[in-house]
Amino acid sequence: MRFGDASRAGSILRLVTPAPPLWAAVAFGASNRVKVLRASQAFPGAAGGDHALDAPALGEGYSRYRLALLVLPGLGGLVPGGLALIMATALGHCGARAAGSRGVGAPPRRPAGASAPRCAYARRDAPDDAATPADDRHAMTGELAADVLVVGGGLAGLVTALECLRAGQRVIVVDRDTPARFGGLARWAFGGMALVGTPLQARMGIPDTPEVALRDWLRFGELDPHDAWSLAWARHYVERSRPEVYDWLRGEGLRFLPAVNWVERGRYGEGNSLPRYHIVWGTARELVLCLGAALQRAGSDGRLHLLHRHRVLQLDTAAGRLCGALARDEARGAEVRLRAPVVVLAMGGLNGDHAECRANWPADRPMPATMLNGAHPYADGALHHHAADAFGAQIVNAGEMWNYAAGFPHPFAHFPGHGLSIIPCKSALWLDHRGERIGPEPLVTGFDTHWLCQRVAEQARPWTWHLLNWRIAAKEFAISGAEHNPRIRDKQFLRFLAETLFGNHRLVRQMQRESEDFLVDATLAGLAARMNALTASHDIDAVRLQATVAAYDAQFARGAALHNDDQLRRILHARQWRPDRLRTAKPAPLQQRGAGPFIAIRVQLVTRKSLGGLRTDLHSRVLGGDGAAVPGLYSVGEAAGFGGGGANGKRSLEGTFLPGCILTARAAARAIGGGG
User: Fold this and answer.
1) How many domains does the chain have?
2) For residues 625 and 379, what is the distance between their CA atoms, to the nearest angstrom?
3) Distance between CA atoms of 335 and 143, rounded to whole angstroms?
4) Which of the four, 227, 255, 513, 574, has the lowest number of CB atoms within 10 Å?
């Protein structure tokens, strides 16, 4: 396949309307011939030893190369040349990134003599902690002094420290975790962001505005009209997410996949009325590595001290004013005084400690007997309570949480009770512990996660089941986070494209090997036996399970015009948006010939994010009971309920958390730099 120049390639892309589907770009050489390169390196893939070959990919900037665009019009198929290239990639014969090739959304080529991109960091085949700022420069006992003390090394703390350093301040960052885990949960997050009015939305014909987004936000989140600061932060988010998150990250060297997804639509259209879910190319791991490298550069003159494996025990005062904190080295037991007139609390939420989580659980909502932990045990709320007791800080909306309805134990747990959050397959039947379909309204993901969690929590057992077949799993099964999305994480665009088009059989086989909660059998009777063996019960009756599947499959025997099932209606609705169509299977009977074997996944509710936290104003200053700012005390990210103590209300539009960390952190840094 050949094109004479980039303008001809662009004309092909313009034929795809109204919204461009997923597409790939392959760099041309001077001869206009596609270069297929043998891999020079292999990069770690998923757990279990999978290794993948990287491939060249381009995105928003086209000036460097003449392009051949392989347009994929929905599911209508590929041009023959593109199909051959993608199949070769899937087989491992298309090679690694060429010297000078760039990732999806890369900016135009730098002029000669220009400075290196701001996102330059250690080689991608280096260990995760290779680019992590990790100095621990301090005496085992004694004091450290700075202008700003940041408590917590997650994304919010990282951005706060970076912006303060760029403003000329001296900064101490103290974090409980190891250097390899610097960046907190963001380091393993998928990297989805709800952003408003971006160029990607415009390119796809999405007419989004802050006004439309705010209407969706307030309706879906059900914010308390008397919660003024949460409302103010919601407005700030929709008005500022484009310049302060999207544009800022682009300026830092980060890029996004060229497709905007449509999540949390609401059961009755009260959620996201438009697609807003942008995915960081490289997942949030790339985000953390990029900003971590920027932090390293900004603090290379000695103005940055990083204390890993240290826990803040208390905030200190002198003459009635905040003056720093006392921290303990959790490995050695030594204590160190951290002197600073400004302290920024960025220690995460309250949901990592399940005792704290249960204590805050709303009395009018069902709570399961057991839950998995998708947060982190360090997110225990201890500093929230200390700030309240010592400084009169307000903890608000503590019972509002963003949990997930479908998780299973991590096969290689990072801490006790660690749960993976799977992205439930829309086409799977969601069953109760007896193997009967939960109803009368069937459970379908992608519309209202908050409602799903309540439905799952009210079941007789703390687990439910997803019943599907291999065809559906290969198309739809996914696990949230960077760890199980190596194609996006490692920027393997063509391999990612191949798995999207032909099915992610790799991940399905991996879970079959690694998770005892992921059951596979050729027959429903055999699957029922496996389900009972896993739960040490006789809850699943094979005859009843067969009847459940037969009743669903009967919908298809009537013909498409006579479907009368809400799950099928929602699936068909989701498939109308082209990016979702690529990840949602065409409706078909579960017992369809050749679609097996059958799969059952035991899932449990998994805790994740706190939607409530410390009350803050639009400068991220912590507010006391009288509504006045506590001098010198700030809170950012999840510790602040992502702004104001509860900017999301009862529900998130999804993807609001990483941007919420960035927005609150940058607001704090501006206020600190301005003396606020």
Assistant:
1) 2
2) 23
3) 9
4) 513
Contact 398, 424 (CB under 8 A): no
Check: CB of residue 475 under 8 Å from CB of residue 448: no
Q: Tell me if 193 is assigned to some domain.
A: no
Dump pLDDT digits (tens) for 562-585. 889 999 999 999 999 999 999 999
CATH number for position 508? 3.90.700.10
Instruction: Tell me, yes or no, whether 356 lies in a domain.
Output: no
Please, what is the angle between helix 542-557 and helix 524-535, to 10°? 130
The C-alpha atoms of residue 426 and residue 445 are separated, in whole angstroms, by 6
Give a yes or no: residue 283 inside a domain: no
Tell me what pLDDT residue 124 has.
41
Q: Which of 413, 495, 483, 578 is nearest to 76 (CA)?
A: 578
Residues 288-340 have pLDDT tens digits of: 999 999 999 999 999 999 999 999 999 999 999 999 999 999 999 999 999 99
Cβ-contact 310, 295 below 8 angstroms: no
User: Where in the sequence is the domain holding 547, given as residue range(s)?
Assistant: 404-571+586-607
Q: How far apart are CA 486 and CA 491, in angstroms?
A: 8
In degrees rounded to 5, what are phi and psi of residue 622?
-70, 135
Q: Indicate the DSSP class of residue 186.
A: G
**Of the residues 57, 74, 90, which one is the last residue of a structural domain?**
90
Token pair of 428 as six digits: 């799977």
Tokens at residue 530, please?
């496996």
Among 105-114, 200-209, 663-672, where is mean pLDDT lowest?
105-114
Calculate ∠ Cα 59-83-257, nearest 5°. Answer: 20
Q: Assess if residue 411 is contained within a domain.
A: yes
Reported as a single tens digit per residue, the pLDDT across 79-113 is 333 343 333 333 333 333 333 333 333 333 334 44
Q: How far is CA 465 from CA 14, 206, 561, 599, 600, in A?
A: 44, 36, 29, 10, 6
Tokens representing 192 are 């989805």
Residue 591: is its pLDDT beyond 50?
yes
> Worst-scoring range by mean pLDDT, 168-182, 338-352, 553-567?
553-567
Tell me the one-letter amino acid at 274.
L
Residue among 611, 666, 648 at smallest CA distance from 344? 666
Q: Taking the C-alpha atoms of 309, 312, 313 and 314 in order, what is their torsion angle to the nearest 10 degrees? A: 170
Distance CA 402, CA 220 (A): 13
Tell me the one-letter amino acid at 518: F
Distance between CA atoms of residues 650 and 630, nearest Å: 27
Q: Tell me, what amino acid is at 233?
A: W
Is 391 strand, coil or helix?
Answer: helix
Above 70 in pLDDT, residue 135?
A: no
Cα–Cα distance for residue pair 227/224, rounded to 1 Å: 5
Rounded to an integer, what is the distance from CA 577 to the centroid of its chain? 21
Q: Convert the pLDDT of each residue in 470-488 to its tens digit.
A: 999 999 999 999 999 999 9
The strand pairing partners of 614, in sequence order, are 395
The pTM assigned to this predicted structure is: 0.85
pLDDT digits (tens, 9 = 90+) for 250-296: 999 999 999 999 999 999 999 999 999 999 999 999 999 999 999 99
* Per-residue pLDDT, 676: 72
